[in-house]
Structure formats: C-alpha cells, structure tokens
Amino acid sequence: MTTPSSTARSRTNSSRTSRRRTASSGAFPATTGMAVHLSGLVKSYGHVHAVRGVDLDIAPGEVVALLGPNGAGKSTTVDMLLGLARPDQGTVSLFGVEPAQAVAQGHVGAMLQAGSLLPDATVGELVAMFAALHRAPLPVKEALERAGIADLADRPTGKLSGGQAQRVRFALAVVPDPVLLVLDEPTVGMDVESRRAFWASMRDLTAAGRTVLFATHYLDEADDYADRVVLMRSGRIIADGTAAAIKNQVSGRRISARLPGADAARLGALPGVSEVAVHGDQVTLHCTDADAALRALLPAYEQAADIEVRSVDLEDAVVALTSAAEDQAKDRAGKLAAEDRRSSS
Ligand SMILES: Nc1ncnc2c1ncn2[C@@H]1O[C@H](COP(=O)(O)OP(=O)(O)OP(=O)(O)O)[C@@H](O)[C@H]1O
C-alpha cells in the first residue's frame, strides 16, 4: 500500500542515492578514503569505561545518526573523532588523515554540546573571526543565512537565547564549508520551528554530498534524516544499519488502548502478548501476534476505547535493543562474579 509517508520515504531514498553519487563524483576538494574510519577505539576516565572498543567506517556522502542512552559514550566517541580527546587505544582517520590535519584543511565542521561563545562579540563578528581561520570559508552572510540567524548578526552572543546560541554554533560548523559535519545533539534547546528550519538547511547541505554524523536523543530526527543509524550502549556499538533494519531487529506490533481498571497480569496472559505497560488508564501491549491479542482483548474488555495497532517504531526498537544489551551485560557480570566466587572457594 502506498501511504503519504511511504511516498515521502521513497522520495527521500532516491535523493539519498543521488547524494552519494554527487559525493563520489568529486563535487568537493579532493579527499580520499573513508570519511570516517574508527578502529578499536577505547577511552576510560579513571574507573569509567566510556568507550570500550568502537569500530566504525562512514563512507563519503553518508548521513549517520549516533544514538544511545545517556552515558553510552557518544560524546566521547565524537571527541576522539575530532581529535579533542586522545584514545587510550585505537586509531581515528578522517579522509585518510589524522583529525587535526583534516580540521586544518577545512574538511571538518563541528557543533559540540559544550563551549561558550565569546560573549562580547556580536554573532557576525564571531562567525567572521572563525571564517578567517579557514582557507576557503563560506561568505559570513551565507553561513548566517544557512543557520537562519541573518537577523541576529549584530546581537552580542551573550544576549542570545539557548536555541539562538545553538544556531550560532551551527553557523560556526558550516562556515569552513566542510565536507564532513559532526554534530553532537545539534537541535537541543531549539523550538519546533527552529528544529524544522535546521533540518531543512541540513537537507540542502547533504543534498550536495556532504557527510554528516550527528548524535541525538530525538529518534524522529534519526528516522527522518539518517541513511544509517548507529546505536551505542555502555561504550559499544550494539546495532548498525538503516532505521528500517534496526526496527526489523525488534519483531511484533504494539496495541495501545484506553482501558480503565486494567489488570496488567491478566493482560499479560492474553495470547500473542509479550509485554504490558500500564500508565493510568492507558495500556500498551507489546505483541508477538497482534491479531490474536486483539481478538482476545475485545471480548475480555468491552470498555476498551481509542484502540490503535501500530508497527514497531525506532523508539521501541532502541529501547528494546538497549535494554537487551543491558540484560546481557548484567548476565556477563553475574557469570564473571560467579566464576570469581568458584575460583576463590
Ligand atoms: N571528562 C570526563 N571525565 C570523567 N568521566 C567522563 C568524562 N567524559 C565522559 N565521562 C563519562 O563517560 C561516560 C560516557 O559519557 P559520554 O558523554 O560519552 O556519553 P553520551 O552517550 O554522550 O551521553 P549523553 O547522551 O548524556 O550526552 C559517562 O559515564 C560519562 O560520565
């Protein structure tokens, strides 16, 4: 069946194909090799094992979302990728050279979570200062327009709202006219309209074949804009593929309904139901067989209302995959502790 969203998706996919073609046909300054090559990256801070062995290749022209719960190691990976943190083990190369060299050549633009803007400079002055550090920057006006802040050029950066400051960071990331954009939670603090404008501008940038790696907690952004989703948990990559492939790793559908006075144990015993979540009157049934579950639910709960059956979305898949990884980590820790006890007795 063709739905508006599937039509939109196939359009997006064909634009992704042509974007790759543009990237490999040399629309940019000559670069060689993988846009990003991370091999065996490990990084600890004292007892905290932030990154525990990350291997990742990103081809020129790919748009990759880096997902994972708080503390998964996304920012640490991004910091090592940009040469801002030194790996304990492993190597990083961007277009076949060290990060510092790729940055010096103007191939890389970055937007990080931390980092204050010079509070006394105006937005225009700050972006101009940054542009002056690069060999072939965009005109300042164009960088400001791409970030949607042309009207803020004369505003001191100390007088910006959080969302506006975030857009200034975006202008600083694009002003080198980079081939690779690395964005750590780029839309944090932006209102809905600014997020939309941000992604519209990103679409223009990626349509020309730029490579993008962005970390985000907004799974709809990953679903809508990334060719590929890399999911991290506890310092490791636990899934890597298209959003569709990641969703396919988690089978089943979800039934949600308003069900006053529902009993979770009774719902859990219905055929085809694997898991139940109850929030007040609202119930979500995770199903291995949604048809069987629905057939059993309706006679048992005549008061059921606002019933919806839907496929697994990216959020469901990410939650399921990250909690499965957590269970496996606990199992591993339990087995190691048991082995320790056995060997010491
Ligand atoms: N400079 C540091 N000193 C000590 N611990 C750190 C440092 N930077 C990160 N960590 C720790 O390393 C782990 C991974 O952190 P990181 O910021 O990379 O995760 P993240 O996936 O980006 O999380 P979030 O989504 O919350 O930004 C966390 O436990 C964090 O507390």
From TrEMBL:
What highest taxon heads this organism's lineage?
A: Bacteria
Q: Taking the first listed entry, what is the main subcellular location of this protein, grouped into a coarse class?
A: membrane
Q: How does it sit in the membrane?
A: Peripheral membrane protein
Q: Which GO terms describe its molecular function?
A: ATP binding
Query: Where does it live in the cell?
Result: Cell membrane
Ranges for domain ABC transporter come to 36-259
Q: Which UniProt keywords apply?
A: Antibiotic resistance, ATP-binding, Nucleotide-binding, Transport
Pfam families on file: ABC_tran
Comp. bias (Low complexity): 1-16
List the residue ranges of the region (Disordered).
1-28
Q: Which InterPro entries match?
A: AAA+_ATPase, ABC_transporter-like_ATP-bd, ABC_transporter-like_CS, ABC_transporter_ATP-binding, P-loop_NTPase
Q: What is this protein called?
A: ABC-2 type transport system ATP-binding protein
Source organism per UniProt: Actinopolymorpha cephalotaxi
